[in-house]
């Protein structure tokens, strides 16, 4: 029954925050019924760490026992003094015995009261189920909730986070750290390893599909004819096309010189069958010479009429690409046909393979241009961040903004880590562990209570005697 109620409370933790623990659950935990850490989302390692006693814990526990013996011995001492003082007073030892007895009596009261208070933190005094005792084992979960709320309100607030991060000066410190060449090399190596790892994990087929789809979608969504027209118009206006014309004409002239027979055979092969062969030959020779002359003149004459005609054609074509609806539609249809061809899609997909191989090789090579540029950029960034307050302010602002977003968005999850972890601790072991860590200091409360009680009793007795006299 106790186990069932524990599980029900664990499943309803988010709605029961701040409510008193139920007696059945409390009793079960005090008896050692440990809620399953996995059921509460508590890491098993955290539960084991709190539910086991290390050698350091055992040594602290031995120190607590020694201090308990000291405090108890002091209580017994004042008790013996009280008995002896009362006996001496009854035997007529004098007024001093009354003062000693009063001091010892008050010391016993103070010692017993503080013993009760200290013991009540960890267990029921003398095993009696006195209300509001055994506070830690019975109120463990409530203490965890209170601790989580305290941390959330006082450590995870936006103002506190910003103030603490601003005081740290992350921008200047990070800049000074990055400005060190050794640190820049380390960051470069880590970034290279991360890049290689990411590229290794990615499947080529997935990336190729994404790249191909992105390029195709972008090309389909944007009309290219006006852009091509503007580019062509600028090229013609600047005379950039003339070098291409010079190259084409020169190559055409050279080809005609080397393939004269092929040209004449082509002309003769296209002649009608009824013409005499010598006429076909003469016509072929004439056509070849005219073609050769035309190419030579275009090659050697920058002001050749054919060049001017070509300039006017390109200018008109550039204007049609920008303004003529039919021309633009034809270009779009041609673009769609080209992109739809399998060869083009394969080319787009294969581009990723080449890029990936190039990036991986550059990341592995310590002397590659990629790594050298990254290292230089880190050193430059570090040097600027170390001295430029404006850059430091930007970095600090980014870090503060990110930290504030995390603590404000996930504050409940962060504080629940505390409450759930405390809830996953075994009550008995938790009590023993806490007592081992703070119990020695608590025993000083008993000692101080004995001493302060004795002094207070002596003072009260003295004032009472003085007023009574």
UniProtKB/TrEMBL annotation:
It comes from the Bacteria. Keywords: Membrane, Transmembrane, Transmembrane helix. This is DUF445 domain-containing protein. Residues 1-10 have a biased composition (Basic and acidic residues). Residues 1-36 are annotated as: Disordered. The chain crosses the membrane at residues 67-85. Signal peptide: none annotated. Pfam families: DUF445. InterPro entries: DUF445. Residues 18-36 have a biased composition (Low complexity).
